[in-house]
Amino acid sequence: MKAPPRLQSLVDEGLIDTVVRQLMSGKEAMVYVVRCGDETRCAKIYKEATNRSFRQAVDYTENRKVKNTRLQRAMAKGTKFGRQATEAAWQSAEVDALYRLAAAGVRVPVPYNFCDGVLLMELVTDADGDAAPRLNDVVFTPEDARRHHATLLTEVVRMLCAGVVHGDLSEFNVLLAADGPVIIDLPQAVDAAGNNHAKRMLLRDVDNLKNFFGQFAPDLLRTRYGEEMWGLYERGELDTASVLTGVFRQASGPVDLGGVLREVDDARDEEAARRLRMATR
Predict the structure, then answer these.
(1) If 124 and its partner were Cys, which of 24, 57, 74, 132 is the partner (CB 3.0–4.6 Å)?
(2) Residue among 151, 168, 149 nearest 216 (CA)
């Protein structure tokens, strides 16, 4: 097919040889299958902020810094230049997260290049060599549901040990490759230690996996892996070899009612935003 305008510069520079077809169009980007020499890869073209349904919520961008103080001031003021800088930082967040997680051994698409707002990365495939389906397009046996759920919990732990929380993990952001699940879509990833909302996002990510796979293996619905995982992380006891049980007992003590109410309000806002994103997929 003819190269879209956003990919033409990569073709001109020899980073892409040909554009095969459009793979998908999502809330934040369009993805194309491309040929690079002898390899088939995918090219993710980020949509402008005004043309996508997923907004750069302050919960996700909290504590994201840029080294240039001029850029920081412009981004804080929301000037045209600042909005452009914010958009660039949002796009590069996924690139940074992919390289960081790939280095940590997390099952994410291998990133190859980032140029002119286009991310070149591995094309995740199924056993037949076709583009791998998302989890929401697959029906599982109870055994397969438990197996893939356990695999993804291991990946979430590995991410957390690398200091990253996905922030929007669900059956829509995991591909089922020939050799198991692969986590995708990371522009909203947050720093586990530097973002005040990281715990809530981690718990929601784990609950999303539990609720999805729990449709096929109802025993998973009784587990509390997220709370157990975060408790170990807070105590500095979590590592990639940690054995999780799915059992969590809340420590007794005074209740911070104000904090609880804030968490309820935040959760309500996040659920409304999640429903909006799902409606536009």
Answers:
(1) 132
(2) 149
Q: 116 vs 7, 9, 112, CA distance in Å?
A: 9, 8, 14
Does 228 score more than 50 pLDDT?
A: yes
Contacts of range 225-233, beta carbons closer than 8 Å, 24 or more positions apart = 225/153, 226/202, 227/203, 229/153, 229/156, 229/157, 229/160, 229/202, 230/199, 230/202, 230/203, 233/160, 233/192
Residue of 96, 116, 130, 168 with catalytic role: 168
For 224-240, what is the mean pLDDT? 96
Give yes or no for a contact between 90 and 28, defined as CB atoms under 8 angstroms apart: no
Proportion of the chain above pLDDT 90, given as a percent:
63
The answer to whether the CB of 118 falls within 8 A of the CB of 6 is yes
Residue in this structure with the two tokens 């980073």, named with its chain if needed: 15
What CA–CA distance (Å, rounded) separates 38 from 44? 19
47 pLDDT band (50/70/90 cuts)? confident
Residue 185 is a catalytic residue: yes
Number of residues assigned to the chain: 281
> Which two structure tokens, joined as six digits, stand for 56?
């750069």
Please identify which of the residues 17, 126, 179, 185 carries the catalytic annotation: 185
Q: Are 275 and 208 in contact (CB under 8 A)?
A: no
- Please tell me the distance from the alpha carbon of residue 226 to that of residue 206, in angstroms, as a whole number: 5
Q: In Å, how far are 128, 135, 145, 147, 221 from 139, measured between CA atoms?
A: 18, 8, 9, 13, 17
Q: What is the mean pLDDT of residues 175-202?
A: 94
Q: Which residues contact 141 (CB under 8 A, 6 or more apart)?
A: 216
